[in-house]
Amino acid sequence: MIRHRPSGSGHPYSDDTEQRSPVQPVAGAPLRLGVRTSGDIDAVTLELRVDDGDATTLPLARVARSSRGQAVDGGHLASAQARTARIAGGWQVELEAPAAGSVLRYRFAAAGPDRVSHTRWFETRVAAWRAADPAALAVEGTAVPVVPGTVEVLDDGERIHRLRFALPLAPGEHVTGFGERYDALDHRGTSLDSVVFEQYKSQGAHRRTYLPMPFAHVVGGEGWGFHVRTSRRVWFDIGEQRPDRLVVEAEVDAASGATEALSLAVYTGDPTSVLDAFLAETGRPRVLPDWVFGLWASGNEWNTQAEVERQMALHREHDIPVRNVVIEAWSDEKSFTIFRDAQYTVREDGGPMRLADFTFPADGAWPDPKGMVDALHEHDVRVHLWQIPLLKLRPHPTGQAAADARAALAEGVVIREKAPDGTVRPYRNRGWWFPLSLMPDLTDERAAAWWTEKRRYLVEEVGIDGFKTDGGEHAWGEDLVYLDGSSGDESNNRFPVAYAAAYGRLLESAGKAPVTFSRAGFTGSPAHGAFWAGDENSTWEAFRWSMLAGLSAASCGIVYWGWDIAGFSGPIPDAELYVRAMAASVFVPIMQYHSEFNHHRLPSQDRTPWNIAERTGDDAVIADVRALVQLRERLIPYLAEAAAAAVESSIPLMRPLYFDHPTDEAVWEHPLQWMLGPDVLVAPVLAPGAREWPVYLPAGSWVEARTGSEVTGGRVVSVDVAERTSLPVFVRAESWAGLSPVFAP
Question: What is the Cα–Cα distance from 484 to 698, expressed in whole angstroms?
């Protein structure tokens, strides 16, 4: 076996052994060509032709094989794939790309003990950067002009593959936004990119995100912002190479003679004006029901009706109000449409089923799903089911899952990919999670309807109130082919937006609010439901990263945002971290805790207050959480009113201080404080052992919510936080009379 895949797996941050790197050769730059072979290959050679010249034969050297950004046995690779990798070899050769416009034709030969195997012939053109007519970049808005002479394109003589340009940065300007970002609020002096990616934990350290947007605010001076109008990948050098320039480089696909290859919107004004212009163009948020502001509870091991009912009963027993439960491990883990243990007759055409099609054994995991949902509704608890946008093919599907896979292929509703032999075949998921699964094209209206109709009975008959639309980041690679003919480089970032939108349409068509809870997203996501920050450990560092994520997401229009309180993965948080994180989350739009699957090993890793109390030996945790969640309940009317105002005005619900004080340089020294609605300033305690906590109060009169003491702003004050439920919260003095009952003990 010998395989060469020019664009590799599509991992955005790592090359695979068997790919061409860079995928688009650049004249005079190094070009690496590689293959993967079976274990019995002794030598590999490259046969290369440049234009119509004679063939050159070059030997390849053995290299350590990697795929999808992982070494042979590293990371999340499935065990079967790792076993295959152990007996597979990697081979590569590096050369210098010839002149721009040259056509490279090449193939590989692998010599084994008995025979020589060849790949097919591959062809690519060599590109080079050249100055471009400024009209190649269509700019709407002229207050901040593109730096003259900086518009350049990467051109191979037939197609333009990238375009780059520079915008001016003045002293004192801060650059922020770019979607959900975990590492900083102000990105000046750094570089980043916009591509949807599943970075499992430590997003702040790796500076990668599930929810990027090629949109930013430039705060300071007159104030402005910009949006690179593309769904393709964009890179930003935010004054890292030159402090006075913000350099933008974007993937494009245009003919060499095209008069326009990329569009840029430049907005002017304060941050709210900039955000309002962006949302007017890309989609405004919608008001969701007040109940989304109540506590959300979940645990990946709540995988039976009895366990869900037990956990909800414990909330009532401990007088901790809960308004939403997310049931993750509910399905048969094959179809993601059928409750585990349900009995049914396979519908061979893959069409929608109804509740009457199922029998639920009394001794099964879910003996009465509708009865459970009805009972939870009586206790004012809404029910959300976990989803994944894949048709699972490992292990080999059976029952309805197998019929659905056959039907999806027959109906032509799946994303496709270009195979190594040049043909087009169904795309098989290259992400870490559920590898090799089929993926429905939810960017296509027909395919999305086919997919969501299979879930209609859950909404209309079982009574489900919303969906956790997880896993929107599985579309990898420019070689994907969507049903509208677009390629992966154009549509992969669009997929998670379409995913949430499709489920929102299903809910609305059944007369319900479009409450989805997503992790991945892109430009356009603010219009579709709620979001939570990605998977994280239970550490103080992750706590800080998550708060930055929420503030940056808010600056890009996400109104309904939350995180897994105190982290969801690995060892449980200690009592101090748990209570401090719970206190901060009282003042985050979505307040939810969650825990990762732990194979039901004991002791439990659940993040419920009672489990944290038991595991840490600190019984006061339950009373602390009770007080905090009851405070949250009193805050809900304010949150609902502020959210409606946020949707109407485009000023974020949870927002960095620079929105209200764009000319106050001091706010940048306190990036992890925020305004919640028009009147509440929050400064979470983000380090262990704190007894005092510094808080910057902008100009004006403020009232400390815990003590009722009035304080003059324009300075840093120190707040007593010796009690772990103590959270520095200040209310505008003119609003204190109306809000003081919320904070009454």
Answer: 51
